[in-house]
Automatic annotation (TrEMBL):
GO molecular function, one term: 2 iron, 2 sulfur cluster binding
Domain Glutaredoxin: residue ranges: 45-109
Stored Gene3D superfamilies: Glutaredoxin
NCBIfam families attached to this UniProt entry: Grx4 family monothiol glutaredoxin (TIGR00365)
Keyword terms, alphabetized: 2Fe-2S, Iron, Iron-sulfur, Metal-binding, Redox-active center
Annotated GO CC locations: mitochondrial matrix
Protein name: Glutaredoxin-related protein 5, mitochondrial
Lineage of the species this protein comes from: Eukaryota, Metazoa, Spiralia, Lophotrochozoa, Brachiopoda
Keyword Iron: yes
Record has Cell membrane as a keyword: no
Length: 145
């Protein structure tokens, strides 16, 4: 009998066994709880293919370039190509089928198309200000394309 089975069977209170099972399995990569732990209390998170320094697809690269255009070089990122569970888990969590996915203050913002639109209409500057990041475009208006 495995240690897990013994622990489960030796529990005299069903709530103890249930707590053990939840603690063991709830934090599996890709679970809702795991995804929440990756975005919780973080200002800016990008789930992408590759890394900011080496994006593995054009859409992920576009999001990184938009952020850099605004002077945002520091943000949390997760390479979904390293873990299929996280890759599928983030899609399930957001109910959004594509990667990359951008989260600001724990809130799902969108993917590449949304980021491009927010950049064009100025909403991205406002969202960045909400998390204490001043866009470079405010200081360099000639930089706008």
């Amino acid at each position: 009998m495995s240690a897990v089975t013994r622990l489960f069977l030796s529990s005299t209170r069903p709530t103890g066994a249930l707590k053990f099972i939840r603690a063991t399995f709830a934090t599996q990569p890709g679970s809702k709880e795991h995804i929440e732990s990756l975005i919780k209390d973080k200002k800016l998170v990008v789930f992408m293919k590759g890394t900011p320094d080496a994006p593995q697809c054009g859409f992920s690269n576009a999001v990184v370039q938009i952020l850099r255009f605004h002077g945002v070089n520091e943000f949390d990122s997760y390479n979904v190509l390293q873990d299929e569970n996280v890759r599928q888990g983030i899609k399930d969590y957001s109910n959004w089928p594509t990667i990359p996915q951008v989260y600001i203050n724990g809130e799902f913002i969108g993917g590449t198309d949304i980021m491009i639109e927010m950049h064009k209409n100025g909403e991205l500057i406002e969202e960045l200000e909400k998390i204490g990041i001043r866009s470079d475009l405010l200081d360099n208006p000639d930089k706008q394309a």
